[in-house]
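Quick bug: Dynein regulatory complex protein 1 C-terminal domain-containing protein output formatted oddly.
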Amino acid sequence: MCRAHCRHKKIIDAIQQDLKARDDSFVVDLKKQTEELQLMLERMMEQDNTLTKAYREELEQWKETVHNEEETKRTEDQTVWEKCMKTLLDTEVEKLLKRQRAVEEFDTEIYHMIFKEYDNHDIIRNQKFEDFQNLELEIHQIETERIFIEHKIKKQKADNAKLKADESQLKAKISSFKSELTKLWVNEQTDKRRKEQQPMEQHLKELNRKSQDYERLQKKILHYVLSNTITFENMWLILDAESKELMERALYVDSTIYKEVLRMPWEPPTLSLADPGSMWEGRCAVSQASQCSQDPAIATHTDADIEGFYSEGEAEVGSTAEDGIVVTPRTVKKLMELICDEAGFLLEVKIVKLLDTLDEKERTQVKMGYLFNTLGIEEKDVPKLVSYLYKFGQPSSKDSEDVEKTGPSDSSDEAESRSSTTDTSDLIDRNDILHALICFLDQQGSNTNIADQWSVQSVEVHDMSKEEAYWESKWNVITPDKLKIWDVTNENLKRHRAVLSEISELNLEVQSLQQENTELQMVCMLLQQVCMDQPLSLSPDVTQIDME
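Here's what came back:
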């Protein structure tokens, strides 16, 4: 075993030495190959450079030769072109002279031909005049039908004009109310300037009251407009249903004429226009619901409410929003000031001039009252707005984890530490306030916007051109060609009816004659039976008398 193991070791050593020698030789060969490759690459680069230089020189020489050849050819072509143009001009002048002579000859021939064709034209004109008279009769019939249709359309237009006049009167009333409000507001402004010592709160209360009256008037006007539009739409739908029934009857009659009388396949007509009254059917109910849901009272924000809100915020150490987020009154004030600054473009110029005479606190209060009134935000929605802005300013999960939800058992130190975090300037970016306000108003108004949208849609001005096209399409369901077919079929049916009535009368006479015939047959049968029975029952004397 040891000897065999030693032999194996010797064999392994010999093999390892052979492998090392072969590896060394392989490395040497690789080095030689790399050196040869580098030399080959250098030679190839030198050859490429020399070839590119030679090709460039050849290209320049070729360009020069081509340019010279082009110039020579151009000069030759110009000379040839000038010669050709001269020859063409000469030939064209000769052709024009020939044409002038031919035109003069043709004029003389045409002058003679005109007199010949004038007589033919008179004959044709008389024939056309007769045809024209026949066409005038047909047109007169068509115009009578058109006048009847226009009379109906004028009635519909008169009804629509009445509705538009009512709407214009309502708009005039609204404009008069607006002008009166502006006059009153201007008068109040002049009184305020004259009486600067009087407090500002009375004037603002009067403004709020008048805005409430104005909004109430707007709602009343909208109520009347909605009622008028609903009645108009209901009447329109009733007339549309009646016209559809008439159209279905006409189509049924047309189909029966084609199938049963003419024995032809009937194709229903295609109405390309959409029904403009289909969008009103679902809208009337929603508009009525929106009228019922509108309250006469309007939620307005007065200065006293905002002052109370600020005073309550200052009295409390911290206020909690809907989601339990602690927000100090300072942060609320800062948020309100930011909203006033960013949404200040909603204020009118007159109100801005009036606000310049007030202090900063009163100015912010008046601004907030006006903005809340215009945006439709109530006092109960203010904590919702604060929490929404807080969440909008801190969307990340890490920041939301830092904000702790607190209850009535929290200590004052924890409330102060949290208020310091919310009072920072990184609460919400100024550029994001308007976007956050729009999102909040969309959230709040998502439930009420549907009825308002339908109520506004119901007051929209109807497109009369579409309605006219719709009624014309209904009127033209039965074309004048079909009406002619109807007239012909009506005459044929009348004749057929007269023939059938004659046949029915003859049938009655035949039946009466058949009854008489049957009665006579019965009488004859009875007489035959009587005659057959009489000779058996008579006496011989009687028979002799009969024979004589």
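Actually, after a second look the formatting is fine. Residues 393 and 426 are 8 Å apart (CA to CA). Closing.
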